[in-house]
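Handoff note, outgoing to incoming analyst
You'll be picking up this chain. Sequence as last confirmed:
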Amino acid sequence: MTTVNPASTLINQLNQSNSSLASSSQALGSGLPSVTNTSAAAMQNNFMTLLITQLQNQNPMNPMDSSQMTSQLAQISTVSGISQLNKTLTALNTSLSGSQSMAAATGLIGHNVLVPGNTLQLTSGSPATAGVSLPQAVSNLTVTIKNSAGTVLNTLDLGAQPAGVVPITWNGLNKSGVQVPSGTYQMIASATQGGASVTATPLSSGKVNSVTMGSQGASLDLGTLGSFNLSSVAYIQ
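Most recent structure output, in case you need it:
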């Protein structure tokens, strides 16, 4: 008479063991269903099916003792407990990550940050700030500033710059040294290294007015620039 330890079989299955229950199923009877679903509830049902079949087919002269049955029940309970613990830890980790993200975003309220964008906001009495993100060090970085009509007002030659975010400040003067009026201006960044062109991503500056929490995480309200996810922040000014 063939006997099977149901709990051990299901635990091996949960760990993605390469062993199969097919031979055990044939030994215990053709009516025993194959075990293919590894969810906690399905595994418990499979365990009880295997256990009942084992009891029905046990050797009357050498029956399974109660300690063995208790051990198997304890093992399957452990499997179910681990599955539930994993779900709880996953939910806890998600909640903790959301709380940390919200706390970090809230700390940015009132600060200026750099996010992807090509606009410069010039206000009378103060310079306009922006930035450029570089994937590598460059031998020359140039920022061209235009008005809404596309007219070039000034060109900032920033020379060699390291990889990363390069903060930019424009005093609002055009090529002739004349102060331009307050407003929104466009910028184009270009960079080279050893004569080869390097991608230069312009960054706009905006003040964080408020923070909201959504399905995509913390969202920052940057006024006229719009709303940006916390992960979009490239630099904190």
